[in-house]
Amino acid sequence: MAFQQPPLPYDFNALEPYGMKAETFEYHYGKHHKAYVDNLNKLTDGTELADKSLEEVIKATFRDASKVGIFNNAAQVWNHTFFWNSLKPAGGGQPSGALADKIDKDFGSFEKFAEEFSNAAATQFGSGWAWLIDDGGTLKVIKTPNAENPLAYGQKAILTLDVWEHAYYIDYRNARPAFIKNYLEQLVNWDFAAENLAKA
Ligand code: MN3
User: pLDDT, tens digit, for every residue of 62-82?
Assistant: First the structure.
């Protein structure tokens, strides 16, 4: 069974009113994400990794110098699926319930969290990701280079933002801070984050 690209959880044009064009999804989902899936299948075809879950492949190949290509593609498949689910139409703003309480407890306030997350996303040099994670019961913000992710580090992902240039170039050109601001104001899927916290 080859690795599959999960369907987008909304239509290509669903986020257009919220600062992310259908054209972004034509490229980012239709070409970038798909290429990672195709490359992963090519690289694992006929090997024992082909029968493992995506999560198992990521953990088994992390920091294995002979399997860098497999790790990069597997992690990017997982990261993008997680990213699509971290977005929703008319999202953003503040969470509620247990997640809101946990953010207040671990960051001091929602504003402190937003500031820390924005800073991590803005300062990841070159390609990478910003994450809200559960690290042994404490919520933290981290940034990761290239394809690396919390799963590889043994942490639990709660929410993510892709800060590779291909993620924002169509909508925001080189203006990464504007992309980050729009994500927090209009796109974050706090329901998905709350589900991940409940499972953590
Ligand atoms: Mn991407």
Answer: 999 999 999 999 999 999 999
Pick the CATH number of 21-85 from 2.30.42.10, 1.10.10.10, 1.10.287.990, 1.10.760.10: 1.10.287.990
- Alpha-carbon gap, residue 136 to 150, rounded angstroms: 12
Relative orientation angle of helices 54-61 and 68-85, to the nearest 10 degrees: 130
In the chain, DSSP finds a helix count (H) and a strand count (E) of: 10, 3
* C-alpha 194, offset from chain centre: 15
Q: 79 C-alpha vs ligand 1 centroid, how far in Å?
A: 8
CA dist., res. 40 & res. 71, Å (int): 9
pTM of the entire predicted model: 0.98
Rounded CA Rg of the chain: 16
Domain boundaries of the chain, sorted by first residue: 21-85, 97-199
Q: How far away, in angstroms, is 160 Cα from ligand 1 center?
A: 11
- Give the Å distance between the CA of 39 and the centre of ligand 1: 15
97-199 belongs to CATH 3.30.390.10: no
* Confidence (pLDDT) at 200: 84
Backbone angles phi, psi at 140, to 5 degrees: -140, 160
8 Cα: distance to centroid of ligand 1 (angstroms): 14
